[in-house]
């Protein structure tokens, strides 16, 4: 893996369907070393996407094994990794979680449910953060949550205080670390309220490696997905 690692995290909306060609083109244009796709589905479009990612060099792949017609997570990378088992106390819908270990650091991809159903997943994230705080590790995905009064417009998140708990545990969210007072939104509701819900949390040991964190909004604005993509670059 190159010293500079570009990670792309993106919710592709219900598996992509007929948009798979556009999704592949968007990913290829960003040239990621690691891609974490949420709302990935194990179906024919998903298989097609995995094949096309392989042709681009993202040949090492693993999914969270979502059941039929359920949304999960795909991780694909240019460098080899080892898939890790989740802890025994992972929430019952464990297909929302996947953890892999590279030579230099670990990555957990996740896709949270909405409203009150996300609480077991937030609790699990805090427990895993405590267990992994001494390692170079990153949590990334669609958390369906953000920091209240700065990551939303006109409303507040359910359980946004969990983000404060992550910070208290020493885990900093990449984009917010570089933009302390910034406002950008990665998803909009049907009421056109903006929310920043796609994030990457860095463990204390990984934070010095953070180089850049930005959102690519074009893929949301052109309808390829309903989410913007998060791009994080690390110097390892």
**Helix coverage percent:** 10-25%
Distance between the termini: 9 Å
The helix tally amounts to: 6
- The CATH architecture category equals 4-Layer Sandwich
The figure for the number of domains is 1
The largest pleated sheet is described as: 6 strands, mixed
What is the CATH level 1 assignment?
Answer: Alpha Beta
Q: What structural class do you assign from the helix and strand content?
A: alpha+beta
Q: Please name the fourth-level CATH homologous superfamily.
A: Endonuclease/exonuclease/phosphatase
What spatial order of strands do you see in the largest sheet? 3-4-2-1-14-13
- The fold-level CATH name is Deoxyribonuclease I, Chain A
- Structural shape: globular
Radius of gyration: 16 Å
- In the predicted model, the low-confidence regions spanning at least 5 consecutive residues are none
Could you explain the architecture of this structure?
This protein is α+β, with helices and mostly antiparallel strands and 236 residues long. The chain contains 6 helices and 14 strands. The strands form 3 sheets. Strands 3-4-2-1-14-13 form a 6-stranded mixed sheet. Strand 1 (4-11), helix 1 and strand 2 (34-40) form a beta-alpha-beta unit. The longest helix is centred in the middle third of the chain and has 14 residues, at 119-132. The mean pLDDT is 96.
């Amino acid at each position: 893996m190159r010293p500079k690692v570009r990670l792309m995290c993106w919710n592709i909306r219900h598996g992509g369907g007929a948009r798979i060609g556009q999704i592949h083109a968007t990913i290829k244009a960003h040239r990621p070393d690691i891609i974490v796709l949420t709302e990935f589905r194990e179906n024919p479009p998903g298989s097609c996407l995995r094949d096309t990612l392989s042709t681009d060099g993202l040949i090492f792949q693993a999914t969270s094994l979502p059941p039929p017609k359920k949304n999960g997570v795909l991780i694909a990378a240019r460098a080899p990794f080892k898939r890790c088992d989740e802890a025994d106390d992972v929430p019952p819908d464990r297909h929302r979680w996947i953890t892999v270990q590279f030579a230099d650091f670990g990555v957990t991809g996740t896709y949270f449910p909405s409203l009150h159903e996300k609480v077991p997943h937030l609790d699990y994230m805090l427990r895993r953060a405590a267990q992994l705080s001494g390692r170079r590790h990153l949590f990334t995905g669609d958390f369906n949550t953000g920091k209240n009064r700065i990551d939303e417009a006109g409303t507040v998140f359910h359980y946004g205080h969990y983000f404060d708990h992550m910070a208290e545990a020493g885990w900093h969210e990449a984009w917010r670390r570089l933009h302390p007072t910034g406002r950008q939104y990665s998803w909009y509701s049907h009421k056109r309220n903006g929310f920043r819900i796609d994030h990457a949390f860095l463990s204390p040991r990984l934070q010095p490696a953070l180089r850049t964190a930005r959102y690519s909004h074009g893929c949301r604005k052109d309808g390829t997905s309903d989410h913007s993509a998060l791009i994080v670059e690390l110097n390892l």
